[in-house]
Amino acid sequence: MKAYQNKDTNHCQLGKETLLKILDHSHDAIFATDGNGVTIYANRACEKYYGIKPSDVIGKDSWQFMENVGCYPPTAPITLRSTRQNTLEQTTRTGAKMLVTNTPIYDAGGNIELLVQNCRDVRELEDTKRDLEQTKELLARMQDEVVVLRKKELQNVKLVANSSQMKDLMQLVERVAPVDINILILGETGTGKSALAKNIHRISSRKDGPFISINCAAIPEELIESELFGYMGGAFTGALQKGKKGLLELADGGTLFLDEIAELPLRLQGKILEFIQERRFIPVGGHQVRTADCRIISATNRNITEMIENGTFREDLYYRLNVIEMELRPLRERREDTLALIYYFLNQFNKKYKKEHRISPECRDILLDYVWPGNIRELENMMERLVVVVEDSVIHVGHLPKVFSEAFSKKIKLIEENEVRLSQLDRAVAQLERNMVVEAFRKYGSSRKVAHALKISQSRAHRLIEKYCNNGDAIADSQERSD
Predict the structure, then answer these.
(1) Buried b (16+ CB within 10 A) or exposed e, 8-28
(2) Rounded to whole angstroms, how far apart are CA atoms 261 and 259?
(3) Which of 309, 328, 347 is the last residue of a domain?
(4) Which pLDDT tens digit goes with each residue over 447-480?
(5) pLDDT tens digits along 137-170
(6) pTM higher than the cut 0.90
(7) Is 451 part of any domain?
(8) Does residue 165 sit in the same domain as residue 293?
(9) Which of 90, 353, 405, 427 could form a disulfide with 98 if both were Cys (CB 3.0 to 4.6 A apart)?
C-alpha cells in the first residue's frame, strides 16, 4: 500500500511499506512486543547496537532473548510488570550502553496491548552533550575575544591634534563625550570622521557597550532597512528563517555610528527620526515594537543644508542629529597635523613591516606642501606604500609618485615667477626711494629738514642721504630731471 490523502480528515494515511521505511531509517533501535512480552518487530538499527538481525528476535520471548544476547537488564519484562512507562540503562553484548525508554500501549480494558522500546546509545548522547558544551565554551570564548578586540581597536584610535583647529575640537570632544547627546561630524572624505566617532565612544559613559558602525552609502537601498532594523523570519525572499537582529538592536547600551548619513534614503529617514525620538522601532515584516538604548553619532561629507533646500533630507531629522556639530578640517588646512601624521604613519608601518626607514628633509617638505585631496586616508596609504616599496633606508624625493614631482615642479615655477615679480617691484621701490631722498636733500640741504619733509626719523634720513647722496652725481642727476 502507498500513502494516500484522506479527503474527509485531510490527514495523510501511511501504508505499511511507508511506515516500515520510516522505522528502518530511524537512528535509534526500536523494538515492539505484544502484551505477553513476545517480540513482534525490530528495526535495522538493532544490528548496530545489539549485534543481531531483526529475524533473530521476532517471535521470541523478550526475556529469554535478552538473556541469550547478554543484555542486562531485560527492560521489557520490567515494564510489563510495572505497567507504566519507564527509562532504564542497558548494556549490550557489543559493548554499547543504551538508554531504553519503554512505552506501553493499552487496550480498552486497560491492559497492555503493545510495548514500544526506543533504544539510544548513551555514549552518542554523551558525545553530543560534550560537543554542545564545547561549542558553547567556544562561542563564549569567541564572544570574549570579540569584546577584547573591539576594545583594543578603540584604544588604538589615534587622533593627531597639533593644529589649533584640532586642539579646539578635542577640547569640545572632552566636554561633550561623557554627555549622552547626539553628535553630527562634518568633513571631507578621509579626514578621520570614523576615528573621531570611535574616540568619542571610547571616553563616553557607554565605553563598555558596543560600537556599531554602518556606512549608509555602502549598502544597497533595498537592504539598508533590514540591516538597521532587522527582520522577522520569512519577511522577504532570502531572509533567514529565524529572522535577524538589526544594528539598532545590536548597538543597545552602546553607540551607533551612522557614517554617510546623507545617503540614507528619504523613506527611511522618518523611521530613524522616530527611533531617535522614541527609542522604538519595528523590524521588517514584524508587528511587535522593540526598543534599543543607544547613542547616535552621524557623519557626512555632504552639504546637508543644501539637501534640505532640495528636499532630499528631512529638516527635522537634521536638527535631531545635529545637537552638537563637529567639523574636521581638510588636511591641506592643517599643516602642523600633516607633519605629525607623516612621522606617526612612518613609525607605525616601520614597526608593522619591520623596517627602519627615514625620510629626507626635501621629501618631507614636498609631502607637507602637497594638498592631499584624499586627506588622512591618502597620506596613510602613501606612507605605507613608501615603507613597503622603498629599499633604501632613506626615502628621497625620487621615491615619490609622479603626481608629487609634478606638484613640486609647479611650486618651483610659481616661486621663480614670484621672485621675478618681487625683484622688479624691489627695483622700482628702490628707485622711487632714491629719487625722493635726493630731491629732498637738494632742496633742503640737511638731514633734519629731509626727515621732516619725508616724515621719517632723522637717523633714517641720515642713512639714506649717506646711501644716495654721498657724491654730487646723485644730486646732479636729480637736478637734471627737475630741470
Answers:
(1) eeeeeeeeeeeeeeebeeeeb
(2) 5
(3) 328
(4) 888 888 888 888 888 888 888 886 544 444 444 4
(5) 777 666 655 655 555 555 566 788 888 889 999 9
(6) no
(7) yes
(8) yes
(9) 90
